[in-house]
Design goal:
The structure holds two protein chains of two kinds.
Chain A lengths: L25 E2 L6 E6 L34 E2 L6 E2 L5 E3 L2 E3 L1 H9 L9 E3 L1 H14 L7 H14 L13 H29 L1
Antiparallel strand pairs in A: 1-2, 3-4, 5-6
Helix pairs in contact in A: 2-3, 2-4, 3-4
Chain B lengths: L6 E8 L4 H6 L1 E6 L3 E8 L2 E8 L5 E6 L2 H26 L1 H4 L1 H22 L4 E6 L4 E3 L6 H19 L4 H13 L1
Antiparallel strand pairs in B: 1-2, 2-3, 3-4, 5-6, 6-7
Chain lengths: 197, 179
């Protein structure tokens, strides 16, 4: 039998049941750290037993796309294929087949499965301003400015952070990069005209 | 204007996870419609962890001694500053040279850090438990802020799961463990 308990995060001593959901912090029995633990009904929720899918007994019954011998219980929310209880992956109230779940994660189709995003807008902005901020590396702008412009244009439509974020970084990066490229253009023009003019 | 999907719950704070990573990784919390979003930001990428309100089993606030330790460090720096001040007065401002010029600024920095450290209140570490993990939430590093966050989070979790009083918790614990 598994014993249900909430442990002290520091010393792993189980917190006494009378110390839970108290208005004030109480010392841990092991390390004496003041702990305030609030538990919710999910702690007492029993894990559903594993299901293997019902075998088809009557001919003509809808079968699972992946297991033709098993009875379909619902369609996949992503592709519409029939799924048995074994293939049904529930995510936030929606049901997916393993293939849709995998493609949803890799291609970012299911937003709640996305666990990483590259911030191209920050990269573009950093490329356009870092060599200027690091004063002694200003000459790098001859390379970084076109790179910033490329990143800003290439990834303009790529998803940004999942939390609200505007395209202002892209716009600033493009403005700074364009100014730097223009500056280099003028500088080179003046140099050439001074040399051969 | 369309509603924002996420509402900021805490500002970003450094995640303590080894020196180099700690320097670059900042963690923040955001409230979604049905989940709490933890974002770990390194400079050019973000990593997301979603904690659905219906899955949160427990939230633990452990009071730490970080404030006291930081106070000690700052007081030590203040003592050093005082020593430098005495030295500057002993040898005379002309002899002490650039040290004198740095004194007001360094006092301001140390003093401000000391005041802020105490105004923000006691420090803590907050842990969120689900059926499969115990995750530390580094952005909740002060008891007051943790309680403010709990005030916002509790109704959302209760709406998703229901409420438990202290008596109910001990009864259900006993039922589960001694059944």
């Amino acid at each position: 039998m598994t014993v249900l308990s909430v442990e002290c995060p520091r010393c792993r001593t189980p917190v006494g049941e009378f110390s839970l959901n108290q208005p004030e912090a109480e010392p841990c029995a092991g390390c004496r750290s003041p702990l305030q633990v609030e538990v919710f009904p999910a702690l007492f929720r029993r894990t559903a037993p594993p299901v293997s899918g019902e075998i088809i007994l009557v001919e003509g019954e809808a079968a699972c796309f992946y297991h033709p011998a098993k009875k379909a219980v619902l369609p996949c929310h992503g592709c519409g294929r029939f799924l048995c209880a074994l293939c049904d992956c529930e995510l936030n109230g929606e049901h997916f087949c393993p293939a849709c779940l995998e493609s949803g994660k890799t291609r970012g189709k299911i937003r709640n499965l996305e666990n990483r995003r590259t911030l191209y807008d920050t990269i573009a902005l950093a490329l356009s301003i870092l060599p200027i901020i690091l004063f002694f590396f200003w000459f790098l702008t001859i390379v970084s400015a076109p790179m910033a412009l490329f990143v800003a244009i290439r990834y303009w439509n790529e998803p940004r952070s999942v939390v609200h974020r505007t395209k202002v970084r892209y716009v600033l990066a493009m403005i700074f990069a364009t100014l730097q490229i223009a500056g280099w253009g003028i500088g080179i023009y003046l140099l050439v005209t001074n040399l051969y003019g | 204007m369309a509603d924002k999907e996420y509402r900021r719950l805490t500002p970003a704070r450094l995640r303590r996870r080894g020196f180099l990573v700690a320097v670059s990784t900042r963690s923040s919390l955001w409230l979604g419609k049905d989940h709490l979003l933890s974002i770990d930001s390194t400079y050019f990428a973000e990593e997301y962890k979603r904690f659905y309100f219906r899955d949160i089993q427990a939230i633990t606030i452990r009071t730490t001694r970080r404030r006291a330790i930081l106070n000690l460090v700052l007081l030590f720096l203040l003592l050093l500053w005082l020593g430098t001040l005495v030295y500057a007065f002993t040898v005379g401002p002309a002899q002490a040279g650039p040290v004198v010029a740095l004194l007001p600024m360094s006092f301001l920095i140390i003093g401000l850090a000391l005041v802020v450290n105490n105004v923000l209140g006691p420090t803590c570490a907050v842990y969120l438990r689900t059926a499969v993990q115990v995750e530390e939430l580094p952005s909740l590093n002060r008891v007051r802020r943790a309680h403010q966050a709990m005030t916002l989070l509790r109704p959302l979790i209760v709406a998703a799961q229901g409420e438990l009083t202290a008596e109910e918790v001990s009864t259900r614990m006993q039922e589960t463990n001694y059944a």
